[in-house]
Design brief:
By secondary structure, the chain is α/β, with parallel strands linked by helices. Helices cover about 35% and strands about 15% of the residues.
């Protein structure tokens, strides 16, 4: 038995030597430590998502379609749009802008102070928090930067208090100039601008086709053209993914409730245009299933575009941009 074991061991050793002799030998390189080098093929600002949001208050959708102003028409060529967006009650600029930034139908923002009123005269039902998309984004990604530009101090300083840069202007021309400067010289993740001169013309001459109202629309459209030129002049523009959203409050500053709605001369519905250079032109109301856009959707779209999760406190707003991901993710 012992002789058999020794024979097996000797045989194994012989086979091992033969195999080792047949293997090609390489010098031992030792431990190699390579210095990390950045991948120069990846652009530093590649895939950065940014958003330009513009509200042209008081711009009737039917008149916009009839006038076909040049700058807005050019945005439609690469835009997802609707000229029949839903309007909430009570209807006034404050409520509409509140819904636009909070993503909620019911904000209880009824007057130009932008302070929410109690739900009843007893004050037993608490006032909602009315947190805006700016706050939600800041809470999740603190280094995101926002700019708010308008000639309405309470809008800028109260509703949009979470903006890092707040600019209160004298008029629409000054708003346009401030936005141009921000786009050309600063890096903001969201830039919001509100134009009011179309609203003023509608209040004076009617929210319908007419020389004065249409002239105001064309003037603001010229501002939009200048702003888009400033955006595209950014040195980093080609490395960024800009979503431009243009919409309207579609109302006057007069508070409308269900009781006063029937006799109101104000026109509904409004419109929304979401422009991205990768989009194909499409009326979202003609999709299957159709998309019925709302003021509240703007806040949800902002969160979606900046890749921030939608909180449970944002009840009504929904982002329908995900239906077009193949278009903006590949271009």
């Amino acid at each position: 038995m012992m002789i058999k074991k020794l024979y097996i061991i000797a045989t194994g050793a012989f086979i091992g030597c033969v195999l080792l002799a047949g293997c090609k030998k390489f010098p031992d390189p030792g431990v190699q430590i390579e210095e990390y080098k950045a991948d120069t093929t990846v652009r530093a600002v590649s895939n950065q998502r940014r958003m330009l949001l513009i509200s042209i208050d008081g711009l009737a959708a039917d008149v916009l379609q009839a006038v076909k102003p040049e700058a807005i028409q050019s945005l439609l060529q690469n835009g997802k749009y609707s000229f029949s967006t839903a309007t909430n009650l009570p209807v006034n600029n404050t409520a509409a802008l509140g819904s636009m930034f909070t993503g909620n139908f019911e904000t209880r923002l009824w007057d130009s102070t932008f302070y929410a009123v109690p739900a009843d005269s007893t004050n037993t039902i608490p006032v909602p928090l009315n947190l805006t998309a700016f706050r939600y984004i800041h809470d999740e990604i603190p280094d995101k930067k926002f700019a708010a530009v308008a000639n309405w101090p309470n809008l800028v300083n109260t509703l949009l208090a979470d903006a890092d840069k707040k600019v209160v202007t004298a008029d629409d021309a000054a708003t346009k100039a401030a936005v141009e400067n921000i786009l050309k010289s600063e890096n903001r993740d969201v830039v919001f601008a509100r134009f009011s001169s179309v609203q003023n013309a509608g209040s004076q001459y009617g929210f319908k086709a007419g020389a004065e109202y249409e002239a105001a629309i064309r003037t603001v459209d010229g501002y939009i053209g200048d702003i888009m030129n400033a955006l595209k002049s950014r040195a980093s523009y080609n490395n960024e993914k800009w979503l431009t959203v243009i919409t309207t409050t579609q109302v006057s500053d007069t508070l409308l409730t269900a009781k006063t709605w029937a006799g109101s001369p104000l026109k509904i519905p409004g419109f929304i245009i979401a422009h991205h250079k990768g989009f194909t032109s499409q009326d979202i109301t003609k999709l299957n299933p159709a998309i019925i856009a709302k003021n509240e959707d703007v806040a949800a779209m902002m969160l979606y575009w900046l890749q921030v999760s939608k909180p449970s406190t944002m009840v009504n707003g929904s982002s329908w941009l995900d239906r077009f991901e193949l278009e903006f993710l590949t271009k």
